[in-house]
Design a protein that fits this description.
Elements: H1 2-20, H2 30-33, H3 44-58
Amino acid sequence: MIAARGILIGLTLAACLVNAGCATVQPWERGTLAKSAMAPDDPSHETTQKLRTYSAKEGGTAAAGVGGGGCGCN
């Protein structure tokens, strides 16, 4: 009896969490969500710059495979 109640509470909680991520977006709200600031990933030029900076800081071959000195002049 107690286990069935725990399972019911767990399923109810899981259903609430699943439904919390769903939202209806009105047509006039889609412009705001389409802005680049709302993207989950960085723009490609920022990613490239971060990799260059990381490579310069490490002073050798970094994740991108770019060789260079530690002075940041690659």
